[in-house]
């Protein structure tokens, strides 16, 4: 990547959205411990993901990136991981079928613990306490003790990430993700219409597999039908943790973030001269950059040069998150900047973060209609510009939660209190996720059809 970089250079830059640990000795001890632990991912895997993202940027693959807003220590269980993984597989089947291109599957998992917050403190009944910043930093309960940042929590996050990744690797290659099991990835709480559409798709896939077998092509000899590649990603927000897990790749001699395959820079921490950009520019992993309404073409230009000076394919993913009704106002100027620079980027739509509202009953929610709208607007802008809409990024869970309103199973404002479990932002439930996948598949097959007609 870059020769004039070390993993601790970010420390000399302005840092925001990071905790001020009070016990420097305890922090140093944790950092030392983490630095001695094995990395969670390896450079070769990050490079393979980079190549796949490069294909997505050219329209030869499609990125599906999803998972929790914030992974929590309390909700950590094999079932939770399995259910999220299942829904991702279901969505990938729907997308592969619609788009006829491979789907690159990346979880917001095994490291998605640290959260930027809109305010540094929270006030309740006249009491002011530091904000909750994710389980890797402090605790959710509204008490002074819970909100003190505790460096030991990084060790628990590392352990949970390692165990999550271990299970994901087992699910990906140990038979669970075998395409012959396509019928078994249902969750039991998808809305009947979409569940039926999924069953129909599964039947068609099973038929195709039978046909291949009869024709002498044995799917059990084709590894890509029996296993999947599943990658991990998270926001690289807590730089002490990221630095401690940064390693030098023995093959290339270059630094690599060992905390996850892909890391991204959030909408609040993308200052071109800030600490987060400084850390991310030096590691060879694929990097995501959130682009919101306040991203200017000038900043984007500087950021693209800093984060991808060699204009490498698959290195930089721009994650657009403007909000429904605002995409046409903001995205075209950024697309123009990318075009003018001749920059290689992968464009992805985060249809969640621009659509958060407070419901009448007081819950932070996202109307599903707005999520769908933003996806449609994203596709429309790219159609207009002649550029590639290369993926979607969203917050979801395989559980039957009631956090986002709407969907065919119609979660109402009154329903929100029933199963509102998120540690941070509201997630799509299994049914809404599947519905979203069908919409994206429609958009992709419409694009395919248009390209075919155009010759
Ligand atoms: C997130 O992805 O959870 C997040 C905080 O997003 P953004 O930085 O786009 O607001
Ligand atoms: Mn979020």
From TrEMBL:
Family per record: Belongs to the class-II DAHP synthase family.
Cofactor: Mn(2+); Co(2+); Cd(2+)
UniProt keyword annotations, A-Z: Cadmium, Cobalt, Manganese, Transferase
Origin: domain of life: Bacteria
Organism listed in the record: Harenicola maris
SUPFAM superfamilies: Aldolase
GO BP annotations, alphabetical order: aromatic amino acid family biosynthetic process
EC number: 2.5.1.54
Note on cofactor: Binds 1 divalent cation per subunit. The enzyme is active with manganese, cobalt or cadmium ions.
Reactions performed catalytically: D-erythrose 4-phosphate + phosphoenolpyruvate + H2O = 7-phospho-2-dehydro-3-deoxy-D-arabino-heptonate + phosphate
Listed GO MF terms: 3-deoxy-7-phosphoheptulonate synthase activity
Keyword Manganese attached: yes
Pfam families: DAHP_synth_2 (PF01474)
Protein name: Phospho-2-dehydro-3-deoxyheptonate aldolase
Binding residues for Mn(2+): 69, 353, 395, 425
Annotated positions binding phosphoenolpyruvate: 108, 290, 321
Gene3D superfamilies recorded: Aldolase class I
């Amino acid at each position: 990547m870059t020769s004039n970089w070390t993993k601790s250079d970010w420390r000399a830059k302005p840092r925001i959205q990071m905790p001020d640990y009070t016990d420097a000795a305890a922090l140093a001890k944790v950092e030392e411990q983490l630095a001695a632990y094995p990395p969670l991912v390896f450079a070769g895997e990050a490079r393979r993901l980079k190549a796949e993202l490069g294909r997505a940027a050219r329209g030869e693959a499609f990125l599906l990136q999803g998972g929790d807003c914030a992974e929590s220590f309390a909700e950590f269980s094999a079932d939770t991981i399995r259910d999220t993984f299942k829904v991702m597989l279901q969505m990938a089947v729907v997308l592969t079928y619609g788009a006829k291109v491979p789907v690159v599957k990346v979880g917001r998992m095994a490291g998605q613990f640290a959260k930027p917050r809109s305010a540094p403190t929270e006030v309740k009944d006249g009491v002011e306490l530091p904000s909750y910043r994710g389980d890797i930093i402090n605790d959710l309960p509204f008490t002074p003790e819970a909100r003190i940042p505790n460096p030991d929590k990084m060790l628990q996050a590392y352990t949970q990430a390692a165990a999550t990744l271990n299970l994901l690797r087992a699910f990906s290659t140990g038979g669970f993700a075998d395409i012959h099991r396509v019928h078994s990835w249902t969750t039991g709480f998808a809305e009947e219409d979409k569940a039926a559409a999924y069953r129909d798709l599964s039947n068609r896939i099973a038929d195709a597999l039978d046909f291949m077998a009869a024709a002498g092509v044995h799917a059990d000899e084709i590894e890509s039908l029996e296993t999947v590649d599943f990658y991990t990603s998270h926001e690289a927000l807590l730089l002490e943790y990221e630095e401690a897990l940064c390693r030098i790749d023995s093959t290339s001699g270059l630094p690599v973030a060992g905390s996850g395959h892909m890391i991204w820079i959030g909408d609040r921490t993308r200052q071109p001269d800030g600490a987060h950009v400084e850390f991310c520019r030096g590691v060879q992993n694929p990097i995501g950059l959130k682009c919101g309404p306040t991203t200017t073409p000038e900043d984007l230009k500087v950021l693209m040069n800093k984060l991808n000076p060699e204009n490498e394919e698959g290195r930089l993913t721009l994650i657009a998150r403007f909000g429904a009704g605002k995409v046409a106002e903001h995205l075209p100027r950024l697309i123009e900047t990318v075009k003018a620079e001749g920059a290689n980027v992968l464009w992805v739509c985060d249809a969640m973060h621009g659509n958060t509202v407070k419901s009448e009953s007081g819950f932070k929610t996202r109307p599903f209609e707005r999520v769908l709208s933003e996806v449609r607007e994203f596709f429309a802008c790219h159609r207009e510009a002649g550029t590639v809409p290369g993926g979607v990024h969203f917050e979801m869970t395989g559980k039957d939660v009631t956090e986002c309103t709407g969907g065919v199973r119609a979660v109402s404002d009154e329903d929100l209190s029933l199963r509102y479990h998120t540690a941070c932002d509201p997630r799509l439930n299994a049914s809404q996720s599947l519905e979203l996948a069908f919409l994206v598949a429609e958009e992709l097959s419409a694009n395919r059809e248009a390209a075919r007609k155009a010759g």
